[in-house]
Amino acid sequence: VYDYEDDNEDLFGDAPTAPAKAQIDFRAELNDDQYAAVTAPDGPAIVLAGAGSGKTRTLTYRVAYLLTQGALPEEILLLTFTNKASREMLNRVEHLTGVASHQFLGGTFHHVGGQVLRSFGDVVGLPRNYTILDDSDSDALLGEIIRESDPDFLKKKDNPKPKPLKNLISFARNVMRPVEEAARARYPSNRDVVEQIEFFAEEYRVTKLRRGLTDYDDLLELWLKVLESNDEAATYYQNRFRHILVDEYQDVNVLQASIVDKIAANHQIMAVGDDAQCIYTWRGADLDQILDFPKRHPNTTIYKIETNYRSSPQILKLANDILESRSIDRSYTKILKPSRPNENLPVFVPAMDSYQQADYVLNRIDRLIDRGVRYSEIAILYRAHFHAMDIQMELSRRGTPFVITSGIRFFEQAHVKDLVSQLRFIVNPKDLPAFHRFACLLPKIGEKTAS
Fold first, then answer.
1. How far is CA 32 from the centre of its chain?
2. Is the pLDDT score of 5 beyond 60?
3. Cβ proximity of 138 and 215 under 8 Å
4. From start to end of 158-299, where are the E strands?
5. What is the predicted pLDDT for the residue at 371?
6. Sheet containing 243-246: which strands, arranged edge to edge?
7. How far is Cα 268 from Cα 65, in angstroms, rounded to an integer?
8. What are phi and psi of 19, to 5 degrees?
9. What are phi and psi of 85, to 5 degrees?
């Protein structure tokens, strides 16, 4: 998410040259569903790719196919939900076609938004040397604004702290609703708090702009503002990108969908997703964006990729039975088809509490080990870190070896932030959170003196 600038990404460089056409046997390397989506004619399209159906392969080969049809890499925009996903896809394209991955503009919405604002940020009052606040820095800035505006606000136990308050503001921005409306829904009986939240949100916005700072939401919000307020920028991107590919479209929010629709005004878009996998509604993901896609992009063709390469027939039957109960437009229904042999039935275990759940999981692991299964062949998946606490405690108590594969992101580690704060301040001397962070590292300098 921090990989916003790339010296190899030249938005306004030399005239593009056509890549050499690769010899790829698309028919032999794809199944029927994948082949239909990969070789789809120009025009708006939705690819409904079920879980484990080779969605990444389909997107990768779609990019390769466009190149073989004469498209230039500079004319293709690939929007994903992680930079890692984008890099993996474009690296595969490079392997397939020989076209260097840096010739494409691809990455997360935030990454591409950051690129756009480096070129057109002045349209919305943002200097080109703006710096980007991570989550903890933006929380701290909002806390600073609250304390300066109303020193007693955070002392009242019923009032929200900076982090949940910023999450509320962020949610409102991503669903493109007034902050006041979101605050009123959260605190319906406290008009004073609603008005204060609205004031804090506006002060937060103005302060960031004055100091040349953005948070992650600004990268989207200001990107859309550039496209809506500057015809030159909108026309440039609409004409530049003849092919727009969007991954995980079921998880886009209203703000992201509005950006895509603005760039894809000529309807040169393929959205890839699965309406049955929308799990981020709590942060603004809007399933209606994929369901209403054909209304916003007339003559949309819907492709379905239904062969599953990941799960056993028994698991797929359970999934299909659950999906069948949904009330949804029949054009979106799909039946996942197995490609793997039969295995054991999936087991559903109701647990009274997290302790009983942990006990069951550990007993199950013990039985697997007794049967000769190696620890390295066992994985425990969970939806949130707090769900894993009891399991981790029980693993430790029993002396079971385990490794946690997730944790603090690289750029969120304290020592990395200490160094990056100095670089941020060099680039943007108005970046006060960066100054405050490294000033506190100096001898005999504390929070008060740094402030």
1. 29
2. no
3. yes
4. 213-214, 243-246, 269-273
5. 95
6. 105-108, 76-80, 243-246, 269-273, 45-49, 301-305
7. 15
8. -75, 155
9. -60, -45
* Spatial separation of the C-alpha atoms in residues 72 and 84, rounded to whole Å: 23
Q: Is residue 226 domain-shared with residue 205, that is, in the same domain?
A: no
pLDDT in tens, 341-352: 888 888 889 999
What residue has token string 């000769």?
A: 372
Contact, 128 vs 428, CB < 8 A? no
Start-to-end CA span in the chain (Å): 29
Same domain, 144 and 270: no
Within 10 angstroms of residue 351's Cβ, the number of other Cβ atoms is 12
Residue with structure tokens 């981020």?
280
Q: How many residues does the structure list for the chain?
A: 451
| Angstrom distance (rounded) from CA 138 to CA 217 | 11
Asked if residue 435 lies in contact with residue 425, where contact means CB atoms within 8 angstroms, the answer is yes
- pLDDT tens by residue, 127-168: 989 999 999 899 999 999 999 999 999 998 889 999 999 999
Among all chains, which residue has been given the structure tokens 């990056």? 420
In angstroms, rounded to a whole number, what is the distance separating the alpha carbons of residues 109 and 51? 22
Residue written as token pair 């409102």: 172
pTM of the model: 0.81
Among candidate residues 411, 435, 414, 406, the one with its CA nearest the CA of residue 423: 435
232: domain CATH number is 3.40.50.300
**pLDDT reported for residue 22:** 62
Domain count, the chain: 4
In angstroms, the CA 320 to CA 333 distance is 10
Separation CA 139–CA 169 (nearest Å):
11
Quick one: 431 and 296 in the same domain? no
How would you classify residue 305: left for phi > 0, otherwise alpha for psi between -120 and 50, otherwise beta? beta
- Could you tell me which of 131, 146, 151 has the C-alpha nearest to residue 208? 131
The CA-atom distances, in angstroms, between 133 and each of 18, 100, 154, 215, 440 are 38, 31, 22, 5, 18
* Angle CA 445–446–449, to nearest 5: 75
3-state secondary structure of 414: helix
- What domain range includes position 439? 410-450
Q: Is residue 176 part of a domain?
A: yes
Closest CA to 56 of 37, 32, 75, 73: 37
The encoded tokens of residue 356 equal 């009983």
